[in-house]
Amino acid sequence: MDGSFPDSKGDKTMVVKCEDVWREISNYFEGDLDPALKLAMENHFAQCTSCQSVRDGMRNVIELYGEKAMFTLPAGFHPRLRGRLSDQVEGRKISRRAWLVSVGVSGALAASAICAAALDRFGPRPLSEMSQPARRLPERLVAIVDGGKTFHVPGCPFMHGKYHMVTPEEAVREGYTPCTRCMRDALRSAGNVMPDFEGEECASSATLEE
Amino acid sequence: MQNRDQPEAEVTLAPRSDPSHEYEAALIGRIRSGESELFYQLIRPYERRVFVIAFTILRNEADAEDAAQDAFLKAFKYLAQFRSESRFSTWLIQVAINEARLRLRKSHLEIMRPIVDQENEDGTYTPRDFTDWREIPSEALERKEIRERLVEALGSLAQKYREVFVLRDVERVSIEDTALALGISTGAVKTRLLRARLMLRDLLSPGLEGIWTGHSQIPKGTKPWS
Question: CB contact, 8 Å: A100 with chain B?
Fold first, then answer.
C-alpha cells in the first residue's frame, strides 16, 4: 500500500508506508517503538491487507517457534550427560582430596627444608670441612691456635704453636671442632662409641682433665 | 487471508523463568568450594537451551548432542574463569556457541550454503505478498512432520540469522543477552532478527517454491497442517 508522510508538525499524526512497516515490524513485536510510530503502524494495518499479512505471519512464526514442543531434547540426553559429567565431577572431588594431601605433604617438606636451611645457615660453619662438629661440649676452657681448625686440651700432641684458652662455646662459634685425639668425648653422642684416632676404643674423659 | 483485526502485537516474548542471578552465584560459589555435584543443579535449567543452540548451528541432532555435552564439560572445567558480572546462562551459551562453531569448522559443514542467504543484511528485505495466508495453529506442532518442516525452514536460513532467531524467539533470551552471547551489537541483533522473522514468515506461507513444495508427500501449493 502506498503511504505518505504529511507534515506532522500540525496535527501530530504520523503516517507510515509499507516499507516503514516492514522495517519496524520486528520492533513492533518487541514493544520497542515510539508510541506515535506504533499508532501509525496500527492505522496502517487497518487499511493495508499486505501489511496485515506480514504482521500476522510474523506473529505466527514467533508463536510457533516459541512453543516448547518445537524443540525437545533427544531421548536419554540427560542420563548420558550426567554419565559424562560424573567422571569429571567425581574426578575433581578425588583430585581435590589428593591436592589437599599433596599440599599438606609439600608444606611439611618445605617447612623441614626451611628449618634445615636455617639451622645450617645460623649454625657455625666448621673451619675444617672434614671434621665433625661437637656433640657435647667440655666444661672447661679449651685451647685453640690461631690458624688452626680444632680445639684441644692443653698439652695435646696434635696441637702445634702458641695457643690460647677460650670457652668451648667461643671455640665452636669460631668454627673450631673437637680434636679427635684429645676431645673424643666431645665427639661422642649418648650410647654411640666413636673409634679413636688409632682405631682403638677410647672413652676416657680423664684426658681432658690432665 | 486471515484478518485478525488486532491492533496489538501481543505475543509471548517474555523471558523464560531462569533461576535468579543470586541463586546461581551462590551455587557457583559452593561448586568452587568443592561441592562439585551441585554443577548438575546449576546446568539443569539450560540443558535444552544449550542443545538447541548447538542444533541450530550444526543442524544435526547427534552432533548437537555431542557439542552440547562437550560444552557442559568445558563449562565445568572452566567455571573458575566465569566472572559473575554477566549471567551464567549467557556465559554458558557462549561456551556452547563456540563449541558448536568449532565442530562446524572441523567438519567443513559450512561449505553447504543455506538456501536463503542471498540477502544483504544491510539491504531492505521485501516480504512476499500473499493473498491466501493462513495461520499455522500451535496444535499442528503435535505432528512430527510439521515440526520437522519448521526445523527445515529454520535450517535454510543463514547461520547468523538462525543464531539470533533461536536465542531470541525460541529460547526467549533478551536482545541484550543475545548480543552479549553472540558478541555483536544490539542493533545487529535487531536487524538479523527482523530479517529472520520475515524470511521464516515467507517460507512458511503457501504457494512458494519453499520448503513445503520440495517434498513429494506434500502436494505443491498446499499446507501440510490443513
Answer: no
Q: Tell me the CA distances in angstroms from B92 to A70, A161, A173, B72, one per residue in order.
A: 22, 85, 66, 8
Cβ contact B124–A19 (<8 Å):
yes
* Model pLDDT for residues B180-223, shown as the tens digit of each residue: 999 999 999 999 999 999 999 988 876 333 444 444 333 444 44
Note which residues in 24-43 of chain A have CB less than 8 A from chain B: 25-32, 42
Please check whether residue A101 lies inside any domain of the structure.
yes
Whether residue A130 lies inside any domain: the answer is no
B13 and A63 within 8 Å at the Cβ level: the answer is no
- Whole-number Cα distances in Å, B27 to A37, A90, B30, B34, B47: 44, 17, 5, 11, 17
Beta bridge partners of A163: A145
A118: helix, strand or coil: helix
Residue at grid coordinates 543452540:
B53
Query: Residue A99's domain spans which residues?
Result: 74-123
Q: How many distinct structural domains can be found in chain A?
A: 3
